Amino acid sequence: MANADFLNQINKRRTFAIISHPDAGKTTITEKVLLHGQRLQKAGTVKGKKSGQHAKSDWMEMEKERGISVTTSVMQFPYHDALVNLLDTPGHEDFSEDTYRTLTAVDSCLMVIDGAKGVEDRTIKLMEVTRLRDTPIITFMNKLDRDIRDPLELLDEVESVLNIMCAPITWPIGSGKNFKGVYHLLNDEVILYKTGQGHRIQEREVVKGLDNPELDAKLGGYADELREQIELVQGASNEFDLEMFLAGELTPVYFGTALGNFGVDHMLDGLVDWAPKPLPRETDTGEAVVAAREEFSGFVFKIQANMDPKHRDRVAFMRIVSGKYQKGMKMHQVRLAKGVRIADALTFLAGDREHVEEAYPGDIIGLHNHGTIQIGDTFTAGEKFKFSGIPNFAPELFRRIRLKDPLKQKQLLKGLVQLSEEGAVQVFRPLANNDLIVGAVGVLQFDVVVHRLKSEYNVDAVYENINVATARWVSSDSEQKLDEFRRKAEVNLALDGGDNLTYIAPTMVNLNLATERYPDIDFHHTREH
Ligand code: G4P
Fold it and tell me: Per UniProt, which keywords does this protein have (predicted)?
């Protein structure tokens, strides 16, 4: 029987990430969330965004950026009775496969949408990734201090484009210069907006009840307008349903302004009340591991390498699935079938990297290593199972990589395969020629790879453009069909860093034709480690 303190530690944890399109307000919301979590004295110091605008390929800037992003990779803070872990999802130029994989390590997501713009590309892609595990989604419509689109139209767009039902929890009263606050549909109260409070935790100014005459005094003509609107909204939208939220089918929606620090706390209240506690995790044995299991287990979803050649250490980010981490404990690394003693795991109390004495399911710890840990690695108390659901994602950008000194082909290949094991990039070797194709999800990864090849493997490489639109891992139930496919489609086939057969499509049309022409072949968008 797990003891009460252990269960209590699990039950109070909420581990989430933010998904959004660049500029929707992720950084600003993160700052305000930390302000509410009392982790920042003053909002506005999470990351110097201006300092993060790296001139491409500028070593120092990239180092600085990566240094900053290590400390903000995971932020842990208390909110009410909960302990919240917010995992950063690299966003602008540093958008990468790590962004996708981070989403496989959380139990819920906050989707931030710019109220003037609605659903944008990146959000659509990130939502697709959350669908792999039906992750519960909370929505925040941001920038209400500006003129936004019709709120009902925004909900419609989320429902139709992202295929998830919306249940408004708060409803905005005006926007832009006329933004007055929100009506909380579940609490039946109006929370009034005050400008100029962006850097402080504000006392909520609340008017109870939609029919309260105080509302007319406070809102003037907006009060009646609000009453009419709410009637309409209640008729036209879905009610919140916890089961459907937990199944990833319905999202509670909040309105506010991150910059004005209004509404972020309403959203946090919903998060700690409804978002799942650390969830069970599937394994290759077919049996899931629950958080309350006393034996320790966890998996690695991200590796961050130090860009500085003098410090070749890496930090592996591990999500704890079950049991308790204690400083100095011994873990079993399943892939290497080896015991390791972990003396100095890092935890990530917002802004500081700190050494932890203990950590619990839902928490992320950072393990120092020199390349012995890979993405997807499972650590246990000795058992041999492996966690599933930490995939590679099909790259979206491709370049041919070429050596300046052709004699170093072997080192190049070795470097690329190792970097691909770390998840920095993916490498493909066509069956039909000697090209080496590098594939990435975000464009900065190409620069990172060239820097690291030079500093860690002493090879000078350059890129050339190549006509590739996408890649798919292929498999088939029939060996014979796969052999036939291998012969017929050879010009489009390649092996990835782990020798898995991959279809390299010059265009999406080509890919569609191939899937039609070879119905016995399965084309996969992700590949399990
Ligand atoms: P991101 O991390 O999702 O990319 O977005 P970020 O928070 O950096 O916000 C992008 C821009 O939008 C920033 O302005 C930020 O100040 C602004 N913003 C965020 N939330 C709100 C809001 O509620 N209302 C308004 N009006 N603006 C908001 P910027 O000018 O690009 O950067 P900065 O100079 O303010 O740092």
Answer: Cytoplasm, GTP-binding, Nucleotide-binding, Protein biosynthesis
What residue type is 337 in one-letter code? A
Q: Does the annotation place 27 within a ligand binding site?
A: yes
Bridge-based pairing of strands 314-322 and 325-326 is: unpaired
33 Cβ closer than 6 Å to some ligand 1 atom: no
- Cα–Cα dist 4/229, whole Å: 47
- Contact (CB, 8 A) for 106 and 365: no
Cβ(115) to ligand 1 under 6 A? no
Task: Indicate whether 433 and 362 sit together in one domain.
Answer: no
Within-domain flag for 210 = yes
**Threshold 0.95, pTM exceeds:** no
CB 334 within 8 A of CB 378: yes
Euclidean distance between CA atoms 156 and 198, whole angstroms: 29
Q: Give the Cα separation of 453 and 283 in Å (integer).
A: 34
Instruction: Pick 45 or 192 by higher pLDDT.
Output: 192
Q: Phi-psi bin for 464: left (phi > 0), alpha (psi -120 to 50), beta? A: beta
pLDDT tops 60 at residue 47: no
Size of the chain, expressed as the number of residues it contains: 529
What is the mean predicted confidence (pLDDT) over 199-227? 93
Beta bridge partners of 496: 428
| Any atom of ligand 1 within 6 Å of the Cβ of 258 | yes
**Domain check: are 337 and 240 in the same one?**
no
Distance between CA atoms of residues 494 and 426, nearest Å: 12
What ipTM describes this predicted complex? 0.97
Residue with tokens 């084309």: 523
